[in-house]
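Slide 14.
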Amino acid sequence: MTDASTAESLQRYLYAATRENTRQSYRAAIEHFEVTWGGFLPATADQIAHYLVDHAKTHAVSTLRQRLAALARWHQDQGFPDPTKAPLVKKVIKGIAEEHPYKERQAKPLHLEQLQTTVTWLEQQLSQAQQNNQCNQVLQGLRNRAMLLMGFWRGFRSDELCRLRIEHIEAVPGKGMTLFLPRSKSDRQNRGRSYPVPALSQLCPVTAYLDWINAAGLSEGPVFRSISRWGQVSDTPIHPDSVNAILKSLWKDAGLNDADRYSSHSLRRGFANWASAHNWDLKSLMDYVGWQDPKSALRYLDSVFQDTQTRIEQDLVISLPGHSEISSTEIIADFRLEPFHKRVRSLKKIREHLVQHCLKRFGAQAMDGRSDRYQLWVAHKDADHLNEIMDDLLHEMHIMANDRDCFIEVSLKDPQTKLTWD
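Slide 15: predicted structure.
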């Protein structure tokens, strides 16, 4: 290989090492510092401290930290000392965080009933477009329905939806499909990961995906693409910002209340809220969605089509309007912790962690001012379903306590029937 080709390859790999959205945000931050504020590069710690102070009241601390990261990267890439690491800058950013606390705005989660409302509206529009032979409207409707259902049931971010490629998807009608993403935000090592998606009897993401690619005549390349007014499907993937705009427009047109409070992230938050409300234990949810928080994760479970399909189908039936066979049972939870050895500290924190991650989803309320007895309310379809939920809860609490070097005694009791699970 020649020196020129080696240098070209080196530059290409260096470029690929940084994500495109990161490059864009860094460019914008540098432009803001130099052009908008009038700073000079390379900068001194004193200049950067004054820059932070001038924007302390108008920018969130998270935004200022992102600007610091961009400035640090510029200095490192150009071979200059990094002024953002100076004690002065660190103290200023810490002081701004103390004086101007900022509560991060989160997208409103999309509930299952709202998902159904949106899909129902979409299908009505599809039917009308088909009757009027409006090719572009039909294709847009099919694409948007697939985007909506795949985004919800897989908890995907907008950029992950845009990176999906047909050649990385294996779909089997009536069973499910496997999606492979070479990289994602949580996959920092770019190892790639496969995501199973079950076929469902209602609001099925697999059927929606197959309907879309078959109608568009797609066999390879990006899954989600722009569509012209003449019904021509682009060869390039749709931009993540466009996903957000399309979904916001859908929710507004479908008549959802507070439609402007939803975003593409509402799909991810919506699925997580739905799964948690229907008693998915923490480790199963983290494994399914792909979160990588080592402080909270107990262990990961291997998800297969049948296990996921059974879990979703059971809870899907009791989630949609028109199903009144749900019962709610009061359960009294008593538990006691003992450390395995003297090195275990703060049983109080471990107890609080158990309550937060195991009992809170059942509306746990402390009884008689005690920290080891709680009143729970458990929604279930029948006695077998209740037994399954209680067994899962016991297993989760034992695993969590054991993971923190503690022995736990747990008793779950129905005060009406006197049934006990322990």
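Speaker note: DSSP finds 15 helices and ten strands in the chain.
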